[in-house]
Structures are given as structure tokens and as C-alpha cells.
Design goal:
Helices cover about 40% and strands about 15% of the residues. The chain is α/β, with parallel strands linked by helices. The protein has 3 domains: about 30 residues; about 170 residues, Aspartate Aminotransferase, domain 1 (Alpha-Beta Complex); about 260 residues, Type I PLP-dependent aspartate aminotransferase-like (Major domain) (Aspartate Aminotransferase, domain 2, 3-Layer(aba) Sandwich), CATH 3.40.640. A 7-stranded mixed sheet has the order 4-12-11-10-7-5-6. Strands 1-2-3-15 form a 4-stranded mixed sheet. Strands 13-14-17-16 form a 4-stranded antiparallel sheet. A hairpin with a 2-residue loop joins strand 1 and strand 2. The chain is globular. About 5% of the residues have low confidence.
Length: about 475
Amino acid sequence: MPAPHDGADREASACDSAVHEGILRRQSARESAARTYARSLPIVPVRARGLTIEGADGRRYLDCLSGAGTLALGHNHPVVLEAIRKVLDSGAPLHVLDLATPVKDAFTTELFRTLPPGLADRARIQFCGPAGTDAVEAALKLVRTATGRSGLLAFTGAYHGMTAGALEASGGAQDVRVTRLPYPQDYRCPFGVGGPRGAELAARWTESLLDDTKSGVPRPAGMILEPVQGEGGVIPAPDAWLRRMRTITEKRSIPLIADEVQTGVGRTGAFWAVDHSGVVPDVMVLSKAVGGSLPLAVVVYHEDLDVWSPGAHAGTFRGNQLAMAAGAATLAHVRENRLDQRAADLGARILGQLEQAAKEFACVGDVRGRGLMIGIEIVDPTGEASGPTADDAGNPADDTLLGAPSASPLPAAPALAAAVRDACLDRGLIVELGGRHSSVVRLLPPLTLTDEQAAAVVDRLTDALAAVSRTAHCP
């Protein structure tokens, strides 16, 4: 016999579904073809707290996208809401260009408190437009002005934003002013060896290119790198290699720019990802979590580079008071509660669990990450492995030349990866794809993730992998 309110519940559910479908339909009709997340995640968020999002259709999801890493404390964290309400209730101006305010002073003080030793005491800050790509543009402009040079060193697989200059520095772009360098990785090492040997070869390549008078690469204005490539497929740079890049640039008077837009504020298990290696860059590009969920982007750099004249780099929306308040509250909460260490410990545990689970699925080629920045590369188990493990005659690669070759990777499988993402959504788990071929399932959960929530994320992801493996008949 039906419960007394079953009919009313069904009617409410149908109404919710109609609202959900109507909003999605109007979005598709009105918004540009450039929309991205809306295509792969057909949900309509209406409420959220912490890890959880509730859609207009009444469904609940565990959000491991976190605004592409923006939500360090998850959705609507109490300390962030309190900071925003305090500004709103104070009657303070919300838009002040670059004027000094108590809110701005508090944000800058908290930010400088967290910066790597060796930079904070001699740092300058420039508030940019509201997005990370604006901060990248400012950083490139800064080093070109300071050095009088125009060239740039960047890395394969990089992602630095969507404006013209940021795109030039990102992987896939073609610009004569940008010299592309190999970024070390184990699974798809460009030299076929991976590990410390692969990183060493990448470093030698960089040195040779800069020192060879016939390389065609003049001394550049700067080198920009991500300590962990995010959109490139969650590829952590080896600490020793990062230190080598610092030495290479320092010896040649090339400013080193660390893009910490996605890796910063505890995400990788240290407050800033460069902290793992002890590297002190000349310039740091910061956004996403630094605004506490609201739009904010800054460039922090060594005072020796501060050669701009007044107005040399400006922008209308440099003084977002709500973002500065939310950002200061987020920075302080992460620092005071050591959430970076929490990310390191919990991230290592999740990685271990996923590595163990991945042994059951032939379509998982690699599991990697740092802290709560995790990637699972999906491959075609029926494809042919590639890599320089043998020469054209079938002879093994010369170990004396390259070192022991790494395991040959299987071909990327973007369609299978999309199927995993969709299967996750069906199970109430929001993830997104990245990597060269959009074949890496990415996890960016909030740093406030509990042990129970972490277990639920792993369970749902593992179940999605199992379902896709069965459907795709992966051995």
C-alpha cells in the first residue's frame, strides 16, 4: 500500500525534473558553443555545502571538481560566508579599484605570511583582473619589461589560461616567441625512460638549448612552469628537476615564474607546490583558491623586478573586497588547521587505494598525483603499446644510452575516459577529464574532505571503472 505522501512526492519530483530540464534546454539554446563543463555535466546546482551539491532535480552529488580547484574549503564554508557577511554588513565599499582598504591589507598580510621563505620579505604584489589568465598575462608582461627581452620558455603539456599571451605559453600553441621544453613524466616520458633518468635528460635538453649558440633560442625573458601540470593530465614535476630548473634559470639571469593557480593553497600537500622542492621562484602566479571561491588573481614577485611605471599594468576589477575577505579567511583557515598536511596524508591514502583497485582494470594505465590533486589515466587495453623499448630491427633499446626503458604505455582512450566520467555522474560523483587526449580522470576534492567522504569517492569511482570495464569488454 503506498505511503500517504507518495503521490505528492512523485508530483514534486516531476516538477523538479521539469525545472531541471527547462534550465538545461534554455542554456543550450542561449549560450555559446564554447561552453565546456555544461556539456559533460548536465546538472543544475541549486544548493551546496562542503563536498555536496544538490541539483534542481533533487539529486545529490559528491563534487570532486571543486570549481576546477577553486574551492579549497568546499562549497559555502562557514568561515568564508562569515568573512563575506562581515564586509557586507560593515557598509564598506565593494569596488575601489586599487585603493588601500583594511580588507586588502588583511589579505596581503595573510598571503605574505604563507609565501616561501626568501620571497615574502622582498616581495611585491600586483592585483590583476579576476582570473588566473590575467595574472599570467601580468607575469609575462612583467618579466619582459624587467629584462628587456621578449622570448619565453614554457613546457609541453602546459596550461596557463585562455587569453592570447597565456595561450602562447600553453601546450599546443604555436608562437615563435615561445620555446617549448620537455616536461618530465614517468608514464609517457618523452625519452622513453621515465624516473630520475628521464628528468635528467629533460634538464640536459634545456641546458643544451640555452647554451648552444646555434640553437636559435636567445636568452628569454622568463621561464614559466606548473609544479604539477593540471590540465596536462595531473603530472607532478620531480622535486630534483624543479631545483635544476631553478639553478639553470638563476645562472643565466632568467626569471622563473611558478604558475600556482591550481596547485596553491594546500592543494598538493604543501601550502605552495614549490615548497615540496624548496624552490623560491622569482614570480608566483596565484588565483582560484586564493580568492576563497570568488574571482581574484595576483602576481607576487621579487622586488628587483618591480620596474613598472604607474599605470603600466592596470584593470578595473582589481579591488574585489568580497574576494579579498574570502581569500584571507581561506588562507588563514588552511594555515591554522594545517589542511595542507591533511591533503598530503589523505591524498597519499587515496592514491594507494586507487593504485590497488586499478590492478583489476586493464583500462587504467596510470594513477598519479600529489596531495588532493589526483589523476587516473584511461587507456585502450586492446591497443598496441608504444615507446622506444626496441629499435627498428627489433633489438632492445641501448640501456647504456638512455638507462632502463620505462614500461611502454598503451594508447590513450578518451572515449573510455568519458564513459568513466559519465558513469561517475550516474553514481553521484562529479569528476572531470584532462590530459593530452582528455583521457585522464581528475579528482580535485576540497581539502576539508573527511575520511568517510574519501571512502565514498573511492567506492563510487571504483564502481564506475568496473561498470565501464564490463561494458567495454576490457580484459
